[in-house]
Specification:
The protein is α+β, with helices and mostly antiparallel strands and 223 residues long. It has one domain. Helices cover 20% and strands 31% of the residues. The protein contains 4 helices and 10 strands. Strands 1-9-7-10-2 form a 5-stranded mixed sheet, with helices on one face. Strands 5-6-8 form a 3-stranded mixed sheet. Strands 3-4 form a two-stranded antiparallel sheet. A hairpin with a 7-residue loop joins strand 3 and strand 4.
């Protein structure tokens, strides 16, 4: 018997670097988001929408730095005075001061870190329909722009001043070029994210695996 109408989750690998693959030993974290997920394009960058999602990720990444047993306690050794060390967070705040914000990115060239990202995307429509419609790239652009430090003032979407609790502001990525692999699985959202169903409702689970591309004493905590 053939069941022609059965639908199954759709999975697609968007980007892959065969020379940098994740392992079970890599440091992992999961970020979540639920609410509207709108596609971005050159004519409509959705800057304010992206910053709303960026704020959601900020709260979770701040918590990650707080609860990780070693991350927030890292220090840097003074090259001229080996016995002297500097706390890592104030150093990063100064290094990544941009557009009136003090950003704390996790995946950076400074840490010589890369990462792989696996996204579970739940949407109200049938599994795979977002892939078939060709709208996946636009929504992924929204997600990845929300995961990184804004490249310019316009990408803050009118939020030129950090809100309460956003000093410093935690981001996942310094730059999305540090993402070596992206895989996306889509499935059907079975419960609305708000009081009623919206066409652009979404729930995301973003699994991040961190991997040093050059092992140093600074990034040993990630290996």
């Amino acid at each position: 018997m053939i069941y022609a109408d059965i639908v199954v989750p759709a999975s697609i690998v968007v980007r892959s670097d065969p020379y940098i693959t994740p392992s079970e030993d890599d440091l992992q974290l999961r970020l979540t988001y639920e609410g509207l997920l709108l596609g971005a394009s050159r004519t409509n960058t959705r800057a304010a929408h992206k910053h709303d999602i960026r704020r959601c990720f900020h709260k979770q990444l701040k918590r990650f730095w707080d609860v990780h047993p070693f991350l927030g306690k890292m220090s840097l050794q003074d090259a001229n005075q080996p016995s002297k060390h500097y706390a890592i967070l104030p150093f990063l705040e100064k290094r990544y001061e941009r557009h009136g914000y003090h950003f704390i990115p996790l995946v950076t060239d400074f840490f010589t870190l890369s990462c792989t990202i696996n996204i579970l995307l739940l949407r109200p429509d049938a599994p795979g329909s977002i892939v078939q419609s060709g709208d996946l790239d636009n929504r992924l652009k929204t997600i990845f722009d929300a995961l990184r430090i804004p490249a310019n003032l316009e990408e803050l979407g009118g939020n030129e001043t950090p809100a309460e609790g956003e000093r410093p502001f935690f981001c996942l990525l310094e730059d999305d070029r540090l993402v070596t692999q992206v895989a996306v699985e889509t499935d059907t959202l079975l419960e609305p994210t708000g009081a009623s169903w919206q066409d652009n409702d979404a729930r995301l689970i973003v699994k991040v695996e961190l991997k040093p591309y050059v092992l140093t004493t600074t990034n040993a905590v990630f290996s």
